[in-house]
Design a protein that fits this description.
Elements lengths: L8 E7 L2 E7 L5 E7 L1 E3 L3 E9 L7 E8 L4 E9 L3 E8 L7 E10 L4 E11 L4 E6 L3 E2 L4 E9 L9 E8 L5 E9 L5 E6 L7 E9 L2 E9 L7 E6 L3 E3 L4 E10 L7 E8 L23 E7 L5 E7 L14 E10 L5 E11 L1 E8 L4 E2 L4 E10 L9 E6 L6 E7 L5 E7 L7 E6 L13 E3 L1 E7 L12 E4 L11 E11 L4 E11 L2 E12 L4 E11 L7 E9 L5 E9 L9 E5 L10 E5 L13 H6 L7 H11 L1
Parallel strand pairs: 4-10, 12-18, 20-26, 27-34, 28-35
Antiparallel strand pairs: 1-2, 2-3, 3-5, 5-8, 6-7, 6-9, 9-10, 11-13, 13-16, 14-15, 14-17, 17-18, 19-21, 21-24, 22-23, 22-25, 25-26, 27-29, 29-32, 30-31, 30-33, 33-35, 36-37, 37-40, 38-39, 38-41, 41-42, 43-44
Length: 635
């Protein structure tokens, strides 16, 4: 960003959560106005504004305006001769279709003028419609009960007219039709009696409202419900270097009791048929048998059996002839009846046998200093590689230069020191287990090399990129609902003058700024000022299923820095519903009562289904995850 000319110079920074208007006008004055790039029609929208480096002898007026062909609306007008940070809330215009309008920021002083305009999208409210059948699979002759419900963007029941609801058989023939139904904020429920000679296959329900049509399918087939289920527990990925893998199989009745019987396991590594071309004649394909491990055990008192399988079984023939997966098939045969239930799982084979990484290594170095750091070597199972020779390189991978030989200690750690007197820019370091830095070959066992870029501490100028930075620390796991979490922000300010610096942060969820804050730090002169701070955040439905944290600041040298990170949450809902059976466990024929607890005047739809049906057709029912995912897709 250069200095302004006679009037002004402005620039724009786009960040992940929307747009941020940033302007500079004359000397030091600069302003930030983050605002969501997409608004929901009629919803509350929050934006924040910062005016920095204000001349105390000159009052400056900031005006934020929403421009449209029909009407210009002033959203914020603030006059000050001091720095300020403020946030404001307003209602987005009501629109019947997606509309683009202009968001304008204008700053006026005695000796300066700046104006910045950016487009924003106002999205029309689009309700989401769900179709639910009482179960995912039916026998010929049974009655299919289904319901249709439409919800607005806040997941509240919405009024909607359904022009036509159709039911089609597996051949696409229309066998049922309902016309001009109105939800009136409630659930539409209908049924259809299947013929005893109904064709087996996939049936499709469709609901059309205006230009929108949604679909839902269910099966019709002659089936026998399973009495029990089988669960396979193993790692989703294994290393080719492992000596053995462990797989646990457990069988449980629908009433949660263990199943006695024999557990049979069949683990195979499939043949890679593509290696032998696409001949239609099987005689042209070489006779290669997929390597397999088969074993049987009697289930223990918990209905489980644990199998330890040697990995060498799957490496006896050329790796190129095999796929990089293991197909696990478990058969559970119930004692006394001979009834069998089969479960499947696929396990991926990785050719990574270990990992190398840098740690306790600075991200910034100063001229003529000694750069000290550490590297760690671990195997696929996170066990340290002891007394292992490692090689340190510098430069880009294709033109790297060998620096040092290292050897790990009993913790798999090695230290290094590097004289930086010969460097005047970024140092790109690599750590490898081979004497030459190479790319791993396809489908060969290898260690993942580590790398780090160490920036040169220098002052920010027009000709150099600032090495000062902000970082929002990400979380690897989704945050649980209704919990308070700490969000951490790291900062590194390099070679700046002594000054106070404000670090602003915003939390952006579901097209609006949920919360915001500011942290003031003291920058030390002409050195590296590093640190971190955190703020607490309540995880609510307004943040689900994903939200962003954005942080930005203005360096004392007037260069802006910013960073953002995306976080996931569990599928949270504002409206809490609780179900209780009394008694919680019963016997066939016993009466039970169901208690539903929800907010007053709630619209409730209850569906009771045999657990055996869900074993027969898993994941084919309406779940909180499904509702949240589909709602997020449309909004």
């Amino acid at each position: 960003m250069g200095r302004p000319g006679m009037q002004m110079e402005t620039w724009v920074l786009f960040v992940a959560f929307g747009c941020m208007c940033v302007g500079q006008a004359l000397a030091d004055l600069l302003y930030f106005v983050p605002v969501p790039a997409v608004w929901e029609s009629g919803a509350q929208v929050r934006f924040c504004a910062s005016l920095l480096k204000v001349d105390k002898n000159d009052k400056h007026k900031m005006t934020v305006t929403l421009l449209s062909p029909e009407l210009n609306t002033t959203l914020l007008q603030k006059e000050s001769n001091q720095d300020f940070h403020t946030c404001s809330t307003f209602l987005a215009p009501l629109v019947i279709k997606d509309t683009v309008q202009h968001f304008q920021v204008e700053v006026i002083g005695k000796k300066m003028y700046s104006r910045e305009t950016r487009k924003v999208l106002i999205r029309a409210n689009k309700p989401v419609t769900f179709i639910q059948t009482d179960k995912p699979i039916f026998l010929p002759g049974q009655t299919v009960y289904f319901r249709v419900v439409t919800m607005d963007t806040k997941l509240r029941p919405a009024c909607r007219k359904y022009d036509i609801i159709e039911l089609q058989d597996p051949h696409g023939n229309r066998i049922g039709q309902w016309l001009n139904l109105t939800a009136e904020g409630k659930i539409v429920q209908r049924s259809f009696a299947l013929n005893f000679e109904a064709k087996e296959g996939s049936y499709q329900l469709s609901v059309t409202s205006g230009e929108d049509t949604i679909y839902h399918s269910f099966k019709v087939e002659k089936y026998v419900l399973p009495k029990f289920d089988v669960k396979i527990t193993s790692k989703d990925e294994v290393s080719i270097a492992q000596e053995e893998i462990s797989i646990k199989a457990c069988a449980e009745y629908t009433y949660k009791q263990p199943v006695p019987g024999i557990v049979k396991i069949d683990v195979c590594r499939p043949i890679n048929r593509y290696m032998f071309g696409f001949s239609r004649n099987e005689d042209d394909v070489p006779s290669v048998t997929a390597p397999c491990h088969k074993e049987s055990k009697t289930a223990d008192a918990t209905g489980c059996a644990v199998f330890t399988i040697p990995m060498s079984t799957f490496k006896e023939i050329d790796q190129k002839a095999l796929l990089d997966t293991l197909e696990v098939v478990v058969d559970m045969e119930e004692e006394g009846t001979g009834i069998t239930f089969t479960q499947h799982k696929r396990v991926t084979i990785s050719f990574v046998v270990g990992t190398l990484s840098f740690f306790d290594t600075p991200n910034i170095y100063e001229k003529d200093s000694t750069l000290q750091g550490k590297v760690k070597a671990v195997a696929y199972n996170e066990q340290p590689l002891v007394n292992k020779a490692l090689y340190l390189f510098e430069g880009e991978r294709w033109s790297s230069r060998h620096l040092q030989n290292l050897t790990t200690d009993n913790n798999g750690v090695a230290t290094f020191s590097l004289d930086t007197s010969a460097y005047s820019g970024e140092i790109h370091l690599h750590i490898s287990i081979t004497p030459e830095l190479e790319y791993p070959k396809y489908r060969e066992e290898h260690y993942e090399n580590g790398e780090i870029r160490v920036a040169f501490a220098q002052q920010s100028t027009l000709d150099t990129k600032t090495v000062s930075s902000l970082e929002v620390k990400k979380n690897s796991e989704p945050f649980p609902c209704d919990t308070e979490q700490d969000i951490f922000i790291n900062y590194s300010v390099v070679k700046e003058m002594e000054a106070e610096m404000d670090i602003m942060y915003l939390v952006y969820g579901r097209d609006t700024i949920v919360t915001h804050g500011l942290k003031r730090i003291q920058v030390k002169p002409n050195t590296v000022t590093e640190g971190s701070f955190s703020f607490k955040l309540q995880i609510t439905a307004d943040l689900a299923p994903v939200f962003n944290v954005v942080t930005y600041a203005l360096l004392p040298s007037q260069f802006p820095i910013a960073h953002s990170a995306t976080f996931e949450t569990e599928k949270c809902f504002n409206h809490k519903v609780k179900l209780d059976f009394t008694p919680a466990q019963g016997v066939p024929g016993e009466k039970a009562s169901l208690r539903v607890t929800a907010s007053a005047s709630s619209l409730c739809g209850i569906s009771v289904i045999d657990q055996s049906v869900l074993i027969q057709e898993p994941d084919r029912y309406l779940k909180p995850e499904t509702v949240r995912m589909q709602h997020h897709h449309y909004t």
